[in-house]
Description:
Helices cover 36% and strands 19% of the residues. By secondary structure, it is α/β, with parallel strands linked by helices.
Amino acid sequence: PALVVGSQAPPLKVSRFLKGEPITSFEPGKIYVIEFWATWCGPCVAAMPHVSELQKQFPAVTFVGVNVWDEEESAAEEFLKANDKRISYRIARDEIPQGSKADDGVMSQTWLHAAEAGGIPTAFVVNGEGKIALITHPLDLEESLPQIIKRKWDIQKAAKKHLDEIMEERRSASLQE
Protein backbone atom coordinates (compact mmCIF):
# COMPACT_ATOMS: atom_id res chain seq x y z
CA PRO A 1 0.00 0.00 0.00
CA ALA A 2 0.98 3.61 -0.50
CA LEU A 3 0.41 4.46 3.18
CA VAL A 4 1.71 2.18 5.92
CA VAL A 5 2.83 2.42 9.52
CA GLY A 6 6.09 4.36 9.36
CA SER A 7 5.01 6.51 6.38
CA GLN A 8 4.94 10.28 6.58
CA ALA A 9 1.34 11.29 7.35
CA PRO A 10 -0.50 12.81 4.39
CA PRO A 11 -1.75 16.37 4.80
CA LEU A 12 -5.09 17.13 6.43
CA LYS A 13 -7.36 18.19 3.57
CA VAL A 14 -10.83 18.70 4.97
CA SER A 15 -13.55 20.98 3.66
CA ARG A 16 -14.13 22.42 7.13
CA PHE A 17 -14.26 21.69 10.83
CA LEU A 18 -17.78 21.06 12.10
CA LYS A 19 -16.71 20.99 15.76
CA GLY A 20 -13.64 22.31 17.58
CA GLU A 21 -10.64 24.36 16.61
CA PRO A 22 -9.40 23.74 13.05
CA ILE A 23 -6.09 21.96 12.50
CA THR A 24 -4.30 22.77 9.27
CA SER A 25 -1.08 20.80 9.70
CA PHE A 26 0.76 18.48 12.06
CA GLU A 27 2.97 20.34 14.52
CA PRO A 28 6.32 18.70 15.27
CA GLY A 29 6.38 17.07 18.70
CA LYS A 30 2.58 16.74 18.92
CA ILE A 31 0.60 13.51 18.62
CA TYR A 32 -2.62 13.25 16.65
CA VAL A 33 -5.32 10.63 16.28
CA ILE A 34 -7.17 10.93 12.98
CA GLU A 35 -10.31 8.80 13.20
CA PHE A 36 -12.57 8.15 10.21
CA TRP A 37 -16.34 7.69 10.60
CA ALA A 38 -19.72 8.05 8.89
CA THR A 39 -23.18 8.78 10.30
CA TRP A 40 -24.65 5.52 8.98
CA CYS A 41 -21.82 3.37 10.43
CA GLY A 42 -23.05 1.74 13.65
CA PRO A 43 -19.56 0.72 14.86
CA CYS A 44 -18.34 4.28 14.21
CA VAL A 45 -21.11 5.79 16.31
CA ALA A 46 -20.55 3.17 19.02
CA ALA A 47 -16.83 4.06 19.20
CA MET A 48 -17.39 7.81 19.62
CA PRO A 49 -17.92 7.80 23.42
CA HIS A 50 -14.70 5.78 23.78
CA VAL A 51 -12.77 8.23 21.60
CA SER A 52 -14.22 11.09 23.68
CA GLU A 53 -12.97 9.38 26.84
CA LEU A 54 -9.52 8.95 25.29
CA GLN A 55 -9.47 12.68 24.44
CA LYS A 56 -10.21 13.45 28.11
CA GLN A 57 -7.64 10.89 29.32
CA PHE A 58 -4.92 12.19 26.95
CA PRO A 59 -5.48 15.97 26.65
CA ALA A 60 -2.06 16.53 25.03
CA VAL A 61 -3.13 14.35 22.08
CA THR A 62 -5.22 16.02 19.38
CA PHE A 63 -8.12 13.83 18.27
CA VAL A 64 -9.85 14.62 14.97
CA GLY A 65 -12.85 12.68 13.70
CA VAL A 66 -13.12 12.96 9.92
CA ASN A 67 -16.56 12.36 8.47
CA VAL A 68 -16.19 10.33 5.25
CA TRP A 69 -18.46 8.50 2.84
CA ASP A 70 -21.60 10.51 3.73
CA GLU A 71 -22.87 11.92 0.45
CA GLU A 72 -24.44 14.98 2.09
CA GLU A 73 -22.54 17.22 4.50
CA SER A 74 -25.86 17.95 6.16
CA ALA A 75 -25.93 14.34 7.47
CA ALA A 76 -22.84 15.02 9.59
CA GLU A 77 -24.17 18.39 10.72
CA GLU A 78 -27.50 16.87 11.83
CA PHE A 79 -25.68 13.99 13.54
CA LEU A 80 -23.54 16.45 15.51
CA LYS A 81 -26.56 18.49 16.55
CA ALA A 82 -28.18 15.36 17.97
CA ASN A 83 -24.99 13.96 19.57
CA ASP A 84 -22.89 17.01 20.43
CA LYS A 85 -22.72 16.28 24.17
CA ARG A 86 -21.40 12.74 23.56
CA ILE A 87 -18.49 13.92 21.39
CA SER A 88 -15.65 15.85 23.05
CA TYR A 89 -13.14 15.99 20.21
CA ARG A 90 -12.77 17.84 16.93
CA ILE A 91 -14.89 16.80 13.95
CA ALA A 92 -14.10 17.67 10.34
CA ARG A 93 -15.70 16.90 7.00
CA ASP A 94 -13.73 15.27 4.18
CA GLU A 95 -12.98 17.51 1.21
CA ILE A 96 -14.98 16.09 -1.68
CA PRO A 97 -14.08 17.49 -5.11
CA GLN A 98 -16.92 19.15 -7.01
CA GLY A 99 -18.98 16.57 -8.90
CA SER A 100 -17.39 13.61 -7.10
CA LYS A 101 -18.89 10.98 -4.83
CA ALA A 102 -18.16 10.93 -1.09
CA ASP A 103 -15.89 7.90 -1.58
CA ASP A 104 -13.65 10.11 -3.74
CA GLY A 105 -12.97 12.54 -0.89
CA VAL A 106 -9.39 13.69 -0.46
CA MET A 107 -8.97 12.21 3.03
CA SER A 108 -10.75 9.02 2.01
CA GLN A 109 -8.35 8.55 -0.90
CA THR A 110 -5.06 9.75 0.66
CA TRP A 111 -5.58 8.01 4.00
CA LEU A 112 -8.09 5.14 3.95
CA HIS A 113 -7.70 3.89 0.38
CA ALA A 114 -3.95 4.56 0.35
CA ALA A 115 -3.60 2.42 3.50
CA GLU A 116 -5.92 -0.28 2.13
CA ALA A 117 -8.05 0.17 5.24
CA GLY A 118 -10.90 -2.31 4.96
CA GLY A 119 -13.54 -0.02 6.42
CA ILE A 120 -14.48 2.38 9.12
CA PRO A 121 -14.07 3.24 11.89
CA THR A 122 -10.33 3.39 11.41
CA ALA A 123 -7.89 5.45 13.47
CA PHE A 124 -4.43 6.62 12.43
CA VAL A 125 -2.00 7.78 15.10
CA VAL A 126 0.48 10.40 13.90
CA ASN A 127 3.55 10.64 16.12
CA GLY A 128 5.62 13.70 16.98
CA GLU A 129 7.74 13.23 13.86
CA GLY A 130 4.67 13.36 11.61
CA LYS A 131 4.79 9.65 10.83
CA ILE A 132 1.98 7.13 10.99
CA ALA A 133 2.70 5.20 14.20
CA LEU A 134 -0.38 2.99 14.14
CA ILE A 135 -3.44 2.16 12.01
CA THR A 136 -6.16 0.45 14.02
CA HIS A 137 -9.75 0.37 15.20
CA PRO A 138 -10.38 3.27 17.60
CA LEU A 139 -11.37 0.85 20.37
CA ASP A 140 -7.83 -0.58 20.24
CA LEU A 141 -5.96 2.65 21.03
CA GLU A 142 -5.84 2.33 24.80
CA GLU A 143 -2.79 0.08 25.05
CA SER A 144 -0.66 1.65 22.31
CA LEU A 145 -1.36 5.36 22.79
CA PRO A 146 0.51 5.69 26.13
CA GLN A 147 3.54 3.98 24.56
CA ILE A 148 3.45 6.35 21.59
CA ILE A 149 3.15 9.35 23.92
CA LYS A 150 6.13 8.18 26.01
CA ARG A 151 8.12 7.46 22.81
CA LYS A 152 8.42 3.81 23.77
CA TRP A 153 6.43 2.56 20.76
CA ASP A 154 8.30 0.21 18.45
CA ILE A 155 7.27 1.62 15.09
CA GLN A 156 9.25 -1.00 13.14
CA LYS A 157 7.45 -3.82 14.94
CA ALA A 158 4.09 -2.08 14.37
CA ALA A 159 4.96 -1.58 10.68
CA LYS A 160 5.77 -5.28 10.24
CA LYS A 161 2.55 -6.31 11.98
CA HIS A 162 0.55 -3.89 9.81
CA LEU A 163 2.10 -5.18 6.57
CA ASP A 164 1.54 -8.80 7.66
CA GLU A 165 -2.14 -8.01 8.25
CA ILE A 166 -2.47 -6.37 4.82
CA MET A 167 -0.80 -9.32 3.09
CA GLU A 168 -3.16 -11.72 4.89
CA GLU A 169 -6.16 -9.63 3.81
CA ARG A 170 -4.90 -9.66 0.22
CA ARG A 171 -4.45 -13.44 0.31
CA SER A 172 -7.91 -13.88 1.77
CA ALA A 173 -9.47 -11.62 -0.87
CA SER A 174 -7.63 -13.48 -3.61
CA LEU A 175 -8.94 -16.83 -2.32
CA GLN A 176 -12.47 -15.48 -2.14
CA GLU A 177 -12.31 -14.35 -5.78
